[in-house]
Write a structure and sequence with these properties.
Strand content: 15-25%
Shape: globular
Number of domains: 2
Number of strands: 12
Helix content: 25-40%
CATH topology of the largest domain: Rossmann fold
Number of helices: 14
CATH architecture of the largest domain: 3-Layer(aba) Sandwich
Oligomer: single chain
Largest sheet: 6 strands, parallel
Strand order of the largest sheet: 3-2-1-4-5-6
Order of helices and strands: EHEEHEHHHHEHHEHEHEHEEHHHEE
Mean pLDDT: 94
CATH class of the largest domain: Alpha Beta
Radius of gyration: 23 Å
CATH superfamily of the largest domain: Glycerate kinase, MOFRL-like N-terminal domain
């Protein structure tokens, strides 16, 4: 009898695999299901081997988890089904570097990319070409068994080849593209020599490319997109409208440097306010910004955007009461314990009272401590899911600007 092999990886791995286990009759499951997730989302689930691993930087626990998944799926035979549950974060959580690259070298490369301002697509382009699993590598291992992936998207455009670096999907990027990313971000001389050498060998044809669309390993591969940032954004839109807000969708694919994006959003809000509003309005966005690290502070892209918005709101004199949320849906913004920032009209005044200069903290990429001091960090804990970031700006009409000590919006 054909069997079902069940594996999951990403920040939503536990919630996804638990639901799958409840639906699939136990007699159809082969072996013990495996879930690899970040430490904060680890749950004890009966009959499932749950492995906690490092994120956003990979570690040995993740490598061990990746090896367990490889060993499990390699048992699948033609006619069996491997059900793969994919969610954001899987790239870091399942490191399986090629033999020419050590885990330490991959960690160093990942850290450099994360601090360079590179987009998630650019980061994953490099990671795909340093891994045996990413960029369709897992699909190649599973063939000729059937593979169906249920995918929770945390990227713009819901590009399935980008989510968790597309382990079950066709990879359209090349070794040459990966080298271009390092060149564009001025990282070629900073990444380990082994990484640079391997990518150059791949670019010259000395190493096989990642699987492309004509690879027969994809003949038995299907997928279903089960959740995304866009779906979440539309849910917020409906909820806002039901509460009586005029709703403006600022962007469904928010991207760019967090500080610049925050200033552009503040200008957009000023334009809405200056045209006149007679009822509360909600300006919504979803996506994923980036941060090019220049300072030595602590924070994440959402905290940086929240702090930058506070400064921009003061600069452009938003003449209304407002409250702004920028947060990661996974509950973890960058290498911090905060999900993001929740700021309002009086946030800058609270910082002044605490004798801190918001602009200096922003310049030092230290949004975490600025928002911590003003009590504007959003702390949710791990949410067990991941559909990128959401931004919500609420504006009240025809009200005076509150003075220090007034209630928040």
């Amino acid at each position: 009898m054909a069997k079902i092999y069940l594996v999951a990886f990403g920040k939503a791995a536990c919630t996804m695999i638990k639901a799958a286990q409840e639906i699939i009759p136990a007699q159809f499951l082969a072996g013990k299901a495996i879930a690899v997730t970040n430490y904060a989302n680890v749950q004890k689930i009966e009959n499932i081997d749950v492995i906690g691993a490092g994120h956003p930087l990979p570690n040995q626990d993740g490598q061990a988890g990746a090896q367990k998944i490889v060993e499990q799926v390699m048992l699948a035979q033609q006619g069996d089904l491997v059900l793969v549950l994919v969610s954001g974060g899987g790239s870091a959580l399942m490191p399986a570097p090629v033999s020419a690259i050590s885990l330490e070298e991959k960690i160093m490369t990942t850290e450099l990319l994360l601090g360079s301002g590179a987009t998630i697509n650019e980061i994953n382009c490099v990671r795909k070409h340093l891994s045996i699993l990413k960029g369709g590598g897992l699909a190649k291992m599973i063939a000729p068994a059937d593979l169906h992936a249920l995918i929770l998207s945390d990227v713009r455009d819901d590009d399935l080849g980008t989510i968790a670096s597309g382990p079950t999907e066709v990879d359209s990027s090349t070794f040459a593209d990966a080298l271009k990313v390092l060149n564009d971000k001025k990282l070629c001389d900073k990444v380990p020599a082994a990484v640079q050498d391997y990518l150059k060998k791949g670019s010259s044809g000395q190493v096989s490319e990642t699987p492309k669309s004509d690879d027969p390993c994809f003949n038995q591969v299907t997928h279903t997109l089960i959740g995304s940032n866009a779906i979440s954004l539309q849910a917020i839109r409906q909820a806002s409208a039901s509460l009586g807000y005029d709703v403006f969708i600022y962007s469904e694919q928010l991207a760019g440097e967090a500080q610049k994006v925050a200033e552009e959003l503040a200008l957009y809000a000023k334009n809405v306010i200056d045209k006149g509003i007679d009822k509360p309005c909600a300006i919504l966005a979803g996506g994923e910004t980036t941060v090019t690290i220049q300072g030595t502070g602590q924070g994440g892209r959402n905290q940086e955007m929240a702090l930058a918005f506070v400064i921009a709101a003061e600069k452009y004199q938003l003449k209304a009461e407002w409250c702004f949320l920028s947060a990661g849906t996974d509950g973890r913004d960058g290498p911090t314990d905060a999900a993001g920032g929740l700021v309002d009209t009086n946030a800058l005044e609270r910082m002044h009272k605490a004798h801190i200069e918001a602009g200096l903290y922003l310049a030092n990429n230290d949004s975490y401590h600025a928002l911590q001091i003003s009590e504007d960090l959003l702390m949710t804990g791990a949410t067990g899911t991941n559909v990128a970031d959401l931004q919500i700006l609420l504006i009240q009409p025809n009200t005076k600007i509150s003075q220090p000590g007034d209630q928040n919006v």
